[in-house]
Amino acid sequence: MDMNLLTQIVFYFFAILTVGSAVVVVFSKNLIHSAFALLFTFFGVSALYVFLGADFLAATQMVIYVGGILVLLIFGVMLTHKISEMNLKSETYQFWPGLVLVTVVFLSLVVVMLKTTWHTPAAPAGLNPTTATIGELFMKEYILPFEIASVFLLIALIGAAMIVRRRSA
Amino acid sequence: MIGLSQFLIISAALFSLGIMAVLTRKNAVNVLMGVELILNSANINLVAFSRFSAGNLHGQMYAIFVIVIAAAEAAVALAIVLSMYRLLKTVNLDKADTLKG
């Protein structure tokens, strides 16, 4: 089989996986189903990063989103429902107006994106490893945002711990 | 061949689905899932333009900072949801109307 065709088949597989499981996230009645569908969406986005030549970002996506944020969200689902009640239903509010609005937003976005002539200079470069370059950029050009991000994460950590702390009487 | 427009369409679909979750869901955790979808769609756009248009890695750097913000946002938002559950015994966003006159 032609290599190009194989690449396209794998790409469209991951594209359908990403969007399809995102549809399950949004339209599933069961909160746990939504949380596990979100796992496949994050996984699919990570695969799309690989197609874009962003190997470091794909690994970061797996570690932070799948390993961190998703576990946090499942914790949130579990801690806010009683274990005994098995129907973790999520109600919807103004479903049909929302669906119409979102369809209009999606179609207008697609039309604008396809009609715009984007500045795409040359054929993109080959798939090179990016980790070393990203590390250099962090230590040179992006040193100030890097430090601010670290302080920001510390503040968010302390703030989250403060908010959920049980006030001792 | 796989071009820029395919990634843009996937990103638009993820963005619309995230908006849908934020607008129509009553459960606070489900709304947070929608916010994560929106952040992911923005990230796909950043990385796609970084590869096809700019040709350098600055878009990927920006995407990493977006991931950092998303992690902090998820932690703080879930802390707020947990204390809301402790206070009101519900995570239904329509029931959290204590300030309503």
Could you say what the CATH topology of chain B is called?
Answer: Helix Hairpins
- Briefly note the structural class of the backbone of chain B: mainly alpha
Q: What's the helix-strand series of chain B?
A: HHH
CATH architecture of chain B: Orthogonal Bundle
Instruction: Report the largest inter-chain contact.
Output: A-B, 80 and 70 residues
Number of strands of chain B: 0
Tally of helical segments of chain B: 3
Q: What proportion of the residues of chain B is helical, as a percent range?
A: over 70%
CATH superfamily of the largest domain in chain A: NADH-ubiquinone/plastoquinone oxidoreductase chain 6, subunit NuoJ
Count of discrete structural domains of chain A: 2
| Quaternary assembly | heterodimer
Helix count, DSSP H or I runs of 4 or more residues of chain A:
6
Radius of gyration of chain B: 17 Å
CATH class of the largest domain in chain A: Mainly Alpha
Enter the CATH topology name of the largest domain in chain A.
Four Helix Bundle (Hemerythrin (Met), subunit A)
Average pLDDT of chain B, to the nearest integer?
89
Described by strand count, sense and barrel closure, the largest sheet of chain B is: none
Summing up helix and strand content along with how strands pair, one would put the structural category of chain A as mainly alpha
**Contiguous uncertain segments of 5+ residues of chain A:** none
Mean pLDDT across all amino acids of chain A = 87
What does this structure look like?
The complex is a heterodimer of chains A (169) and B (101). With 169 residues, chain A is mostly helical. In chain A, 73% of the residues lie in helices and 0% in strands. Chain A has six helices and no strands. Chain A starts with a helix and ends in a 5-residue tail after the last helix. With 101 residues, chain B is mainly alpha-helical. Chain B has one domain: Helix Hairpins, CATH 1.10.287. Helix content of chain B is 78%, strand content 0%. Chain B has three helices and no strands. Chain B has helices at residues 4-24, 28-54, 58-88. In chain B, 54% of the residues are buried. The mean pLDDT of chain B is 89. Chains A and B meet through helix 1, helix 2, helix 3, helix 4 and helix 5 of A and helix 1, helix 2 and helix 3 of B.
